[in-house]
Amino acid sequence: LYLNNQIFLDPSYKLIKGNLVKIVLPELIDDKPKAENINLDILYEDDFLLVINKQAGLVVHPAPGNYEGTLVNALLYHCKGSLSGIGGVKRPGIVHRLDKDTSGIMLVAKNDEAHRYLSKGISTKKIERKYKAIVWGEPKQKVGIINANIARHSQDRKKMAVVYDIGRVAITEYKVINSYGFASLIECSLQTGRTHQIRVHLASLHHPILGDKLYGGKNLNSGTLKMDRQALHASHLELNHPVSGASLSFSANLP
Q: Active-site residue 99, yes or no?
């Protein structure tokens, strides 16, 4: 936007008679992701679905700031057009997602029939997903259920927050696997799948995940232990095959 041939940045300015306004539209961007040869750790594949062990740092689907180098770009290259279209052109095959810096097991649907089956399996809890996280401190309750609604943070729109009387129901089961005094290894199971659910719920217990830049608070880089991403990993997945009904089970060790 130009005003009197000068770049114009003040949104409060009131136009007056005689001002010359010039609007320059940016070039159109093709919103259809392109296939890219990106390495994938494939745990299982057939004509209906794909199970991968996603590396930390890999964004799942194109979004502002990440239009290339995503999991979707990699899947388009690997699957050569055999992906479900239910998620739209920007999310072909994506049944559920992991945050960029969360590693671990993800499901991908290769046709619409499989996509509908897998999505329903997640929503009805017939597909079991387990995560491992390393948190600061040692929870007093070694086994528990966190039942706390989650909604967008009222002041920081990049964050989610535990809320009361509003938001969406969110339930996380957890158990402490091992404690090291300053930190603990925890396994979490999801009854719901809200954005940042595990990260928000564990932070609400005052045991945020190590390396979590968004929810780690003052503990982010305490002492000599530093991590460049949140210590959260999708470690286990169990489901029945969408066509054969066969029981499938997958595990991925911590990176």
A: yes
